[in-house]
Design a protein that fits this description.
mainly alpha
Length: about 700
């Protein structure tokens, strides 16, 4: 049974009682009326740690229990060794070394090591390679020091074989214990109080054991010296660790696959790597150079471990850059980098490659009704199902919030329908549990395109697949629509005409004037003045005209809100650039314009949205549109703020120079303003000519 509230502090009581017994141990006589009092006190503390571990297992019931069972068995063997050792010393006055207790002392190490290894494996969800390499680095240094100052000198003493074997056994076993202890300490996972007490036990045992071997070799060891206090304190730390309420969390898998490379860890590893050459230099300076092969071998091992650590770090950074944290799939960036390569390969070989984009139907409803954790759970499960349909050589990526994209080398217009239907059926075949009581059936809409049938560039394929996806949504969802090559009307007329109408409708909602047209004119003028070429100036002009079309997706009450917006309403507005970019990207050949629309709310200091880009990561055209949009907005009446004068707007631009805006673009714009290069209607406040129903967001 688990302990109740009254059992929250047994570990404190245990430590307090144990401390009293340790004090009594040093104050008590060896015997009292023939009774071996000191032996009993020592063994009572030693055995109590094993009992505390067993009680902790019964109370807290950690999963798994095997690591703690091995540690409890290790402590029982250790307590038995203590009983034998101190009975021989105090009761029988047998002080020979080694003694009958030493095999039991040595036998407890493998049990403890095995228990700690199981704890490490449980706490580390991935390979834990970084923690192992760091632990190996420190263990190699410790092994070198142990050889130089403990093991090596002992082998040169010419002691009897049994003495030498036992004396070597302690440092070797301590090194094994040190290695796994470092793996536990440097690996990922929670570090609750129980963990710190556990580490204290290991540190105390290894420290006392090392000093014990040195004292035995130089003949200075005496039973009852200060080492007993270290051993007993370590035993108490182990018992308190098992009794502590956080004992269960010690074996919980870490949310991260490996511990981060913190500055403290870098400093510690760097210092450890310098120990070997430092020892060699000290020996050379003192004229007592010995064990050069050991030190040289240590340096070589440390070098190899450092290279391995750097290689693992580079591998991890690359994996993080191309892997979505939630789903474990590739990122959109990886997808966009891989698609041109696959198209180039298909073009060389005369083959084909298909793009498939799937979007979860009614995903916003899932988030609103069941909560965002449920939505995340749905995405994780869908990722697993989609991954099961992917073959070697195909690329599956999380393309957007609830969108997935797939590159299918070799797929043709004939085979793609079969693949797409199989994927759709795989998703909708089984309900997804989002809680213990609730399951939901999730469907996806799918759009596809094939090279070279539908398009010959990555932008073309993605745009056509995107349009097909929207067609699937419009046709009722939960279906597959196959792309078609765009006609001339598609590429030059209807799509853009519709987006211009949307821009005008948004203007009517926001200011009642042709606001987006003013931004477009200013954007082209500023782009040319800033040194952008004609193509870039055209992109900036069209992006300025369409920059706010995503607001058509925002409910009118939110756009018309005069009071402070809620966080949920701000989320809607922060999604506007992405929605606008999506609408523009449907028109073939306008991917660059779409990207400028997506980025025009990014800030130069990296605090903007939707992607948090900073500095030169933002397209130059987007920095131009950002300044022009802000200027036109400031000169317009808005529900929450009256129009500013040109001087006031100028001051606002200067205030945002280098934080919100590209400082170079601001300087060029203000130069145009000062020289009279702006259109006359852009240097005076704009008054409303129609009722305003929505604010600028």
């Amino acid at each position: 049974m688990r302990p109740g509230a009254a059992a929250r502090w047994p570990w404190v009581l245990y430590l307090a009682a144990g401390a009293v017994l340790v004090v009594l141990y040093y104050l008590a006589p060896v015997t009292a009326g023939g009774f071996p009092l000191r032996v009993v006190l020592y063994c009572l503390v030693s055995a109590s740690a094993a009992v505390a571990v067993i009680v902790g297992l019964a109370w807290h019931r950690p999963r798994p229990m095997l690591p703690w069972l091995l540690i409890a068995a290790s402590q029982l063997v250790y307590a038995l060794a203590d009983a034998i050792f101190y009975l021989l010393h105090y009761a029988l006055d047998i002080t020979a070394y080694p003694s009958l207790a030493d095999p039991f002392y040595l036998a407890h190490y493998p049990l403890a090591v095995a228990g700690i290894v199981l704890l490490i494996r449980r706490r580390t969800p991935g390979r834990g390679l970084a923690g192992l390499l760091d632990a190996g680095t420190l263990a190699v240094v410790a092994a070198m020091l142990s050889w130089l100052y403990v093991i090596g000198p002992q082998t040169r003493l010419g002691a009897p074989l049994l003495v030498e074997v036992v004396s070597l056994g302690y440092p070797v076993m301590d090194l094994a214990l040190l290695t796994v202890a470092l793996g536990l300490l440097l690996g990922p996972g929670a570090r609750p109080p129980a963990f710190l007490l556990f580490i204290g036990w290991l540190a105390a045992i290894m420290t006392a054991d090392t000093i014990y071997v040195v004292q035995q070799l130089n003949g200075t060891f005496q039973a009852g010296n200060f080492l007993d206090a270290i051993w007993l304190t370590g035993n108490l730390a182990l018992g308190a660790s098992a009794l502590h309420p956080t004992m269960r969390s010690m074996a919980e898998p870490s949310p991260v696959p490996d511990a981060p490379l913190s500055p403290f860890r870098i400093a510690g590893l760097s210092a450890a790597a310098l120990i070997a050459p430092t020892v060699l230099f000290v020996q050379w300076a003192s004229g007592l150079v010995r064990d050069v092969p050991v030190v040289a071998g240590t340096c070589a091992l440390l070098f190899a471990l450092t290279i391995a650590r750097l290689a693992a770090l580079v591998s991890d950074q690359r994996r993080l850059a191309i892997t979505d944290a939630l789903t474990g799939l590739h990122t959109r960036r990886f997808f966009e980098a891989q698609l041109p390569l696959e198209i180039a390969r298909a073009r060389r070989t005369g083959g084909s490659v298909a793009v498939l984009i799937a979007d979860v139907d009614h995903f916003k409803t899932i988030n609103d009704r069941d909560g965002h954790p449920a939505g995340d759970q749905v995405l994780v499960e869908l990722s697993a199902r989609l991954r099961g349909t992917v073959r070697a050589g195909e690329v599956l990526a999380r393309y957007g919030g609830e969108e997935f994209a797939l590159i299918l080398p070799g797929a043709t217009a004939e085979t793609l329908p079969i693949i797409a239907e199989r994927l759709r059926n795989e998703v909708s075949g089984t309900a997804i549990p989002v809680s213990a009581q609730r399951q939901i059936l999730v469907t996806v809409s799918v759009g596809t395109a094939v090279f070279p049938t539908h398009g010959t560039t990555p932008d073309d394929l993605v745009s056509i697949a995107d349009r097909a996806l929207y067609a699937a949504k419009a046709a009722g969802r939960d279906q597959v629509v196959f792309g078609r090559a765009p006609s001339r009307a598609d590429s030059t007329g209807g799509g853009l005409d519709y987006l211009h109408l949307v821009a005008d409708e948004v203007d009517a909602l926001l200011a009642g004037r042709q606001r987006s047209r003013a931004v477009a004119r200013l954007a082209r003028l500023l782009a040319v003045e800033s040194g952008l070429d004609d193509a870039s100036a055209g992109i900036a002009q069209l992006a300025g005209r369409l920059h706010d079309i995503g607001k058509i997706t925002v409910p009118r009450p939110v756009l018309a809100r005069r009071s402070e917006l809620t966080e949920a309403e701000w989320e809607l507005l922060r999604a506007v650039p992405a929605h606008g970019a999506r609408m523009v990207s449907i028109v073939p050949g306008h991917t660059a314009v779409a990207e400028v629309v997506r980025q025009h709310r990014e800030r130069w200091d990296g605090t903007g949205y939707p992607a948090g880009l900073r500095g030169t990561e933002i397209r130059a055209e987007a920095t131009v549109v950002a300044v022009c949009d802000a200027w036109v907005a400031m000169l317009s009446d808005r529900p929450y703020q009256a129009a500013l004068t040109a001087d006031q707007a100028r001051a606002q631009l200067l205030a945002g120079r280098g934080t919100q805006f590209d400082p170079t673009i601001v300087d060029v714009f203000l130069g145009l303003l000062d020289s009279g290069g702006l259109p006359p209607d852009q240097v005076a406040p704009r008054q409303r000519t129609a009722p305003v129903t929505a604010p600028q967001a």
